[in-house]
């Protein structure tokens, strides 16, 4: 959680590294990176209980860019090192908690089920492939890779494995590290 300016700088730097970007976003382009920067500023201003106009300006811009890119990602859900791979629909429940160094692709849903307000708790260094669905009050161990179009409805307690299918089953003992930017492990 971002509670200070130093936390804000750390989160934004780790996001930059996870995305594989250089120093600053381009004036034209880098829309996903700009979205993540706005998200981190919104987290900072919300967590520090700021009542400034700047907070509302960031929230307005964040919602606007979210709609443009097709993201429904609430603040204070992802840890540092978030890497969104592509534009496209991504829906995340506000009760979900995702650890550091998560790479998420388009078409992903992380949600609750049957009126339950609780959602997934996802560990560090997790890769979530295109179209994957993580549904319910479940936990996912660190270093897990979730294959494209997988539907995860039960806990994944075995770290360093790959899961796929409907419903998701373990398909290999390969961890997620090949799917993440290797520089995130140097931080």
From TrEMBL:
Swiss-Prot/TrEMBL keywords: Repeat, Transferase
InterPro entries documented for this protein: Hexapep (IPR001451), Hexapep_transf_CS (IPR018357), Trimer_LpxA-like_sf (IPR011004)
Asked if the Swiss-Prot or TrEMBL record annotates the protein with the keyword Membrane, the reply is no
Is rRNA-binding found in the keyword set?
no
MF-aspect GO terms: transferase activity
UniProt protein name? Serine acetyltransferase
Q: Which organism is it from?
A: Anaerobutyricum soehngenii
